[in-house]
Amino acid sequence: xxxxxxxxxxxxxxxxxxxxxxxxxxxxxxxxxxxxxxxxxxxxxxxxxxxxxxxxxxxxxxxxxxxxxxxxxxxxxxxxxxxxxxxxxxxxxxxxxxxxxxxxxxxxxxxxxxxxxxxxxxxxxxxxxxxxxxxxxxxxxxxxxxxxxxxxxxxxxxxxxxxxxxxxxxxxxxxxxxxxxxxxxxxxxxxxxxxxxxxxxxxxxxxxxxxxxxxxxxxxxxxxxxxxxxxxxxxxxxxxxxxxxxxxxxxxxxxxxxxxxxxxxxxxxxxxxxxxxxxxxxxxxxxxxxxxxxxxxxxxxxxxxxxxxxxxxxxxxxxxxxxxxxxxxxxxxxxxxxxxxxxxxxxxxxxxxxx
Length: 355
Ligand code: NAD
Fold this sequence. Notes:
The protein is an alpha/beta fold.
């Protein structure tokens, strides 16, 4: 057996429909008395409902979370939390709200409880991305890890179909890259396989019937597993490309992950077919084409062009993504990358044989 290092997270996880009602109990177990509920403006009502249910345990509500965790928003929220003497943060929402909770936990000794309502998975990673004056920086620190995560699938029932699909595929991309991660271990690989399978079946059912609870339950379960492996092992080509397309070309986060996933996995399948065999098993085809057919069947975006990317920018994207060497299971050559990006731009099926 290969040697490996394994670090288990310390967070308490509560999973299941109705678990939101345990929030007060979780707070008390963690020794907390005054929580500020965090949300985005569109999710203000859900946050208000939770604050009402918490009664005297709620010290306030801050519904100013936005994408990319801008530092000025964090500072305003921090001043508010200090004013109401909060000792606890409850981040109810997607990755943007979790990001605000993490940024506040990083700057204070408030206890963070996450209540995720999308499939992004940030609630179980020690990673925090923040923006200041248009620049994004990412840090990795266990101080940003929530002390507890409450996964109540009922909260994700309202996530619109299109957003559910791309959010779920974004999560699946973490688990797909975890399968060939340099620092993978037997547990991370098991979690990744289970996460991909649960997300696959969840998204299929959601696409067929967005209101069906079983699909939502399975997708949120998959999101937990996929997020967990993102927090445990390093990512490679797929995340580098998506970071490039998002950071340098302002492409939408989850949609870009959804388009690129079959292409990056197909590209790497040539180098590590054994490690990606679980994807072939789950999707019943070669990894790239199998994922491509599945994403298409869900109605996910399948081309960069469709997302507004410009053909004229493909060369620059290939230059950036092939610059600054980083670890990937298949050696990255600029021409190979450029060809892969062209396929992704056109919405073509990734080549068979993983070429
Ligand atoms: P998001 O949090 O930005 O949410 C998008 C919109 O959907 C918001 O308006 C939100 O209020 C709304 N929404 C969320 N849940 C809903 C629900 N159940 N019903 C109706 N509306 C709902 O989107 P996201 O994709 O969850 O998060 C993306 C962000 O998370 C990105 O900034 C990304 O970088 C970050 N992220 C970070 C990590 C990490 O480990 N640090 C991991 C994954 C994603």
